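so the lab meeting is tmrw and i was supposed to have these ready like two days ago... anyway. pasting both below. for each one the top line is the aa sequence and the line under it is the structure tokens. i havent really looked at them closely yet so no promises
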Amino acid sequence: MAGIKVFGHPASAPTMRVLLTLHEKNIDFEFVHVDLMGGEHKKEAFLARNPFGQVPAFEDGDLKLFESRAITQYIAHRYEGQGTNLLPADSKNIAHYAIMAIGMQVEAHQFEPVAAKLVSEQVFKLKKGLTTDQAVVAEEEAKLAKVLDVYEARLKEFKYLAGDTFTLTDLHHIPTVKYLLGTPTKKLFTERPRVNEWVAEITKRPASQKILQ
């Protein structure tokens, strides 16, 4: 059976989510670079892996997956006994798993859409020689502040967002947090003590350092 392959781009936050998970699990894999600038992700060969033309795509032997959060959950379950446990300490406890699932949903629907707009405005626009729209930044920062207020309250009770152990809930945030730490939006993290500690904790992990260099 063929090994694991990740088809993606190293600057893509969804791709980074999958790479982080593999590094945390100490799993060997082959990375296949997808040329986004050249439109490779919209061509027939890649669309056969993900019909929506987005990175990453993933293979584990005969199994083919897309959507980064689905891939990370597959890896965390399939290789649960290897490397870092990314599930609740008692992964069979349905209540504990549901808490982690809530955290993943909050990241996907409350944190990421807002944070991604801020990254687009303050990172990728500049790389393209475009001007950041400060009105958009102000609007999105106000939304992100509300999310981080919820996180601050949660992190006063627990070390991590889903409890006292590092899980996929935390991991899913790392790529976009990494980008925002290089922008003025960093202040939203640093002015909240518990959030600031959590950000420092999740970004200093060895797996994080491998993709954040």
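ok protien two:
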Amino acid sequence: MSLNFFDQFMSPTLLGVPLIAVAMMFPWILLPTPTNRWLNNRTLTLQNWFIDRFTNQLLQPLNIGGHKWAMILTMLMIFLMLLNLLGLLPYTFTPTTQLSLNMGFAVPLWLATVLLGLRNQPTATLGHLLPEGTPTLLIPILIIIETISLFIRPLALGVRLTANLTAGHLLMQLIATATFVLLPMMPTVALLTTLVLFLLTLLEVAVAMIQAYVFVLLLSLYLQENV
């Protein structure tokens, strides 16, 4: 049987039932639930501190109207981060390596920001399609270019998240396979490859967190243009 590096991105099944739903529900099980006690435990305190700092950082440039999105953006950030980090564990599946899932997150939220702008400030929203002071001959071309760039935004959101996670998983599997093959032949080289794999794993942990933050940050920037 030939080794296929892309098999890890296939949704696992059990008795013909896809397990992607289980993989998407599992992060919420790991989150600590609030208690009625006066003092929370360290885990819950750390979680509340992280959510508070992230929300302040994310919503600082937005006006009061954009603060209604605080719950959605914060929960999306935590959900994507946990999915990405859990996908780095052995014998696990990363749902965010599926472009269809990422587009399912990106398209509705991007469309909501656009519709919100068209409802609240239609003149300013449509004005983004034509920069001020544009020469008359360039007006049709610039409108077409800006419209295309507007509709490419959700595609860029989904593709960026998918490509970064997919590339990282493939690179880790390639280096791990090379380590396994080199171990009986060249132990010294295999040891160096193991060190590279360890450093790459640390990098992938950072990438998993950063990509979730970038996804939500770009959504907040799109929201900032329309509120």
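from a quick look at the 2nd one: The longest strand covers residues 13-14. Residues 113 and 223 are 5 Å apart (CA to CA). will dig more after coffe
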